[in-house]
Write a structure and sequence with these properties.
- The protein is elongated, with a radius of gyration of 22 Å.
- It has helices at about 10-30, 50-70, 75-80, 90-100, 120-130, 155-170, 190-195, 210-225, 245-275, 290-295, 320-325, and strands at about 5, 30-40, 85-90, 105-110, 135-140, 175, 200-205, 230-235, 280-285, 300-305, 330-335.
- The protein is an alpha/beta fold and about 350 residues long.
- Helix 4 packs parallel to helix 5 (about 120-130) and helix 10 (about 290-295) runs parallel beside helix 11.
- Belongs to the universal stress protein A family.
- It comes from Citricoccus muralis.
Length: about 350
């Protein structure tokens, strides 16, 4: 039995987060703690009685958001005993980060539009993902690539760049099955098929770090969800922002692609030896955020680490993380960095 924490602010996105957290808790027979945070009103010259009243209103709203969320879930009597609610005074991100110290998983909505002060907005989800002490599952603010509320990754110009790169390098080795002989991408492969990750959990793979542990965490979720696992690595070889590519470098690119693909295939094979989940791999000549953002358009879950080198340098430490979390169409599981055993 484990312990899952979910942030609630009364917004529709936090309702989606609670639904995901409840589904995972049911599958793991885990306890679920729903947390709402509120802040005191900041009025320096407000009479003490009025200030206390406003603070009471904030607590009331936080409590109401929790009660309404839990009531709407239709819990059984046994589930009601395993679902607890907690109202915390203070910063929302800090509350969830502190709760993550004793949790197995923290779930938070990507964005909030709740009625309570200290609501779980995009900056909160990013902070929890970057600093949480257990894996953090970030639920996007829309339900999928066909939601009209926000633009889909499938229509993103960066995704179109990725499709163009695949067209240009279709004959290069780029996809394989980790069990048995490694297959290669034929020149006739459909680019849309290469970008289709339906039914497969995607894990961003740092080829220099050999993140076996991260991939195995992703495999656990793939098994629980009944999906396969795809290791995705990316490195931009073909494009440069500083001028034309030299003929010497251009001639070396195909071999460098093959070397990266061979490395990814080796890692996928090691992962496959340690799990019963079918494991595949795909390498893209593209920016990491572009590859993962495009994958999220069809994948049920994308898994990344809090740190990376090589193909995923700076993940969740700068622009790459913000780009992924802001554009994702799929839930993103962020796993704190740990050293390989």
């Amino acid at each position: 039995m484990g312990h899952i924490v979910v942030g609630i602010d009364g917004s529709e996105n936090s309702l989606h987060a609670f639904d995901h957290a409840l589904t995972l808790a049911r599958g793991r027979n885990a306890a679920l703690e729903a947390v709402a945070a509120y802040t005191e009103p900041g009025y320096g010259y407000t009479p003490a009685a009025a200030s206390a009243s406003r603070a009471g209103d904030a607590r009331t709203l936080a409590r109401a958001a929790l009660d309404e969320t839990v009531a709407s879930a239709g819990l059984s009597e046994d589930e009601e005993r395993r679902v607890t609610t907690t109202v915390v005074e203070g910063d929302a991100a800090k509350a969830l980060i502190e709760a993550s110290a004793t949790a197995d998983l923290t779930v938070v909505g990507q964005r909030g539009r709740g009625r309570i002060s200290g609501r779980f907005m995009g900056s909160v989800s990013s902070s929890v993902a970057a600093h949480g002490q257990c894996p953090t599952l970030v639920i996007p603010g829309h339900t999928g690539p066909h939601d009209d509320a926000e633009p889909s990754s499938a229509a993103d110009p960066l995704s179109e760049d990725l499709k163009a790169a695949l067209d240009a390098a279709a004959a290069e080795r780029g996809d394989g099955l980790a069990r048995g002989a490694h297959a290669s991408a034929d020149a006739g492969d459909d680019v849309e098929k290469m970008l289709d990750f339906s039914g497969s959990v995607v894990v961003g793979t740092d080829l220099q770090a050999e993140p076996i542990t991260l991939a195995l965490v992703a495999a656990e979720y793939a098994q629980q969800l009944g999906h396969t696992l795809t290791l995705v690595a990316a490195h931009r070889f073909s494009a440069t922002a500083w001028g034309p590519v030299s003929p010497i470098y251009g001639a070396q690119v195909p071999q460098m692609r093959r070397d990266f693909a061979d490395r990814l295939a080796l890692i996928a094979g090691k992962v496959a030896e340690k799990t019963s989940v079918p494991v595949r791999w795909r390498f893209f000549d593209a920016a990491p955020a572009t590859a993962l953002g495009a994958a999220s358009a069809t994948a049920p879950l994308v898994v990344v680490g809090t740190r990376g080198r090589g193909g995923f340098a700076g993940l969740l430490l700068g622009s790459v993380s913000q780009s992924l979390l802001n554009r994702t169409d799929a839930p993103v599981l962020v796993v704190p960095h740990t050293r390989e055993n």
